[in-house]
């Protein structure tokens, strides 16, 4: 974990782009208290900006324990960083006054992995959809509220006649997940953080749900952070990708560059593992069991114990994120000599979406 000083002033623009959300040198460490002596670096020194204009879809890919879900929770303000700061519209979210915090909660919306966890089985869909309308005062009358809900449902391809008035168990998995998208949409967010939104639906529904998420970005200009363990869907819908391993961003950039020409040995391993001959075997399954987050005692590259190219320096100090092209960077000493410089913020190598 790098020890760095974080500025408290409003963050500067990057690439001439004004950021809605910006993570600056964010690190999250778990453990280390009286009850749990061991510490784990779940997210290590991540800087990233989500631009206000043309934000695109950013995939955060990695296996269980890579830190991708912790990164999502940090972005949503569910957990605070151990080091570094997160800015919303240029202001540190840790010090936002109550009213501005409410605006942050409205504009940065989650879509959760398992819609069952979100739904109360005793409430109809109407309740799920009406709660944010009431909580955030989005409508002046009941009929206006109902119109808003119907419009949101239709935007994600759901018919209100087939969803309102029903209990969660009366809907398919795909309908439940799309209702979550519609619910997030009600609040007209600037950013949606979707945590494995298609991992619990079958292949036939996956395309429909991913289509809804794509539409939010392309038609409504909402930034989407797509958290996934699946490189195939990341490639399908995202503009840029962040690959994480044990809390570190090991490779990032334009999705086509990273998937078609991976520059970090870990990404190369992941890409080589798809497609698998057995469709029931999930991508990277055998790697998942080995990932438990970064060890505080390991100051070098976390991938070194498994890397076929490991050198002496790899275990001594963490490499920087080397720029390996206009829209690609890798955290690996193999690129030290040919590097185009070090990358400070991950989004500095992002392709700006049209
Ligand atoms: Fe392998 Fe060294 Fe690169 Fe880490 S820094 S991925 S150990 S070559």
Between the first and last Cα atoms, what is the distance in angstroms?
35 Å
- Strand tally: 13
Count of runs of 4 or more consecutive helical residues: 11
SSE string, helix = H, strand = E?
A: EEEHEEHEHHHHEHEHEEHHHEEE
Query: In terms of per-residue confidence, which ranges show pLDDT below 50 for 5 or more consecutive residues?
Result: 2-9, 279-292
Spatial strand arrangement across the major sheet: 6-7-8-3-9-10-13-12
| Proportion of residues in β-strands | 15-25%
Question: How much helical structure, as a percent, in the residues?
Answer: 25-40%
Estimated structural class: alpha/beta
Look at the structure and give the mean pLDDT: 86
């Amino acid at each position: 974990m790098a020890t760095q000083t974080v500025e408290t002033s409003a963050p500067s623009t990057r690439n001439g782009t004004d950021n809605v959300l910006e993570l600056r040198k964010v690190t999250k460490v778990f453990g280390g208290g009286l009850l749990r002596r061991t510490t784990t670096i779940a997210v290590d020194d991540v800087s990233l900006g989500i631009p206000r204009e043309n934000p695109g879809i950013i995939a955060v890919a990695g296996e269980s324990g890579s830190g991708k879900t912790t990164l999502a929770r940090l972005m949503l303000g569910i957990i605070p960083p151990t080091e570094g700061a997160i800015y919303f519209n240029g202001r540190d979210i840790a010090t936002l006054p109550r009213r501005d915090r409410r605006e942050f909660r409205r504009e940065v919306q989650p879509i959760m992995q398992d819609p069952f966890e979100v739904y109360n089985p005793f409430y109809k869909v109407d309740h799920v959809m009406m709660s944010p309308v009431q909580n955030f005062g989005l409508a002046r009358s009941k009929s206006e509220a109902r119109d808003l809900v119907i419009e949101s449902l239709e935007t994600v391809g759901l018919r209100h006649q087939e969803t309102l008035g029903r209990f969660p168990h009366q809907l398919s998995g795909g309908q439940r997940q799309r209702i979550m998208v519609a619910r997030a949409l009600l609040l007209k967010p600037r950013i949606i953080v979707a945590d494995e939104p298609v991992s619990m639906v079958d292949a036939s529904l996956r395309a429909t749900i991913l289509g809804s998420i794509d539409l939010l970005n392309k038609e409504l200009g909402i930034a989407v952070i797509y958290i996934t363990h699946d490189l195939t869907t990341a490639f399908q819908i995202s503009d840029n990708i962040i690959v994480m391993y044990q809390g570190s961003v090991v490779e990032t950039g334009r999705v086509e560059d990273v998937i078609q020409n991976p520059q970090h040995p870990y990404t190369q391993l992941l890409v080589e593992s798809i497609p698998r001959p057995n469709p029931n075997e999930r991508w990277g399954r055998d790697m998942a069991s080995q990932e438990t987050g970064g060890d505080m005692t390991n100051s070098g590259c976390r991938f070194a114990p498994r890397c076929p190219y490991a050198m002496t320096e790899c275990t001594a100090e963490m490499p920087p994120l080397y720029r390996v092209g206009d829209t690609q960077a890798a955290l690996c000493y193999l690129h030290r000599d040919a590097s185009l410089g070090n990358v400070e913020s991950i989004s500095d190598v992002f392709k700006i979406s049209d």
